[in-house]
Design a protein that fits this description.
Layout: E1 19-26, H1 29-39, H2 43-46, H3 48-52, H4 63-77, E2 89-95, E3 104-116, E4 123-133, E5 139-150
Antiparallel strand pairs: 1-3, 2-5, 3-4, 4-5
Length: 155
């Protein structure tokens, strides 16, 4: 018989108003180009010369790469140690400023709402907002979304 896994974070650890700051993720030129080659092969994500003639003025990360970096920071900071059950989606995603090679990104998460799921009382819903900033303290991404977490088992 297998004993149930114990997690560090459960739904009860994410009350409304709870904040977490994490990150310090450096953005490398190689990572920007590799992500773009695989998932967003627009010229301004792949080539310095092509990027010079755009609104960005130089090579920039795909917005989807920026989202993926945010997801990695969330996993490293808390999700991999949580009783996460996934997410039904993201709302209000905005790319506010380009992300460039050499930038260092950090993320702030704030819980906006937390409630038990009506149809599954062993699951809690958490609505959060995230703001990603670069090393100049400039916001580069904002988004809101829901997460689903197991509720803490009774002792």
């Amino acid at each position: 018989m297998t004993t149930p896994r114990t997690y560090r974070y459960y739904w009860e650890d994410f009350p409304a108003g709870h904040r977490m700051d994490f990150g310090g993720m450096p953005v490398s030129r190689e990572a920007v180009i590799e992500f773009a080659r695989q998932f967003d092969p627009q010229p301004f994500h792949l080539d310095d010369e092509a990027a010079r003639g755009t609104l960005f003025g130089r090579l920039s990360a795909s917005g989807w790469h920026t989202c993926a970096m945010a997801m990695r920071m969330m996993c490293d900071a808390y999700l991999l140690e949580s009783a996460s059950l996934g997410s039904p989606g993201i709302d209000n995603l905005r790319w506010l400023k380009p992300v460039f090679p050499g930038d260092v990104l950090r993320l702030r998460m704030e819980v906006l709402e937390a409630r038990p799921m009506a149809s599954k009382p062993h699951v809690g819903l958490v609505r959060s907002s995230w703001e990603m900033r670069n090393q100049h303290d400039e916001p580069v991404l904002t988004m809101e979304g829901w997460g689903m977490f197991r509720r803490r088992p009774a002792p």
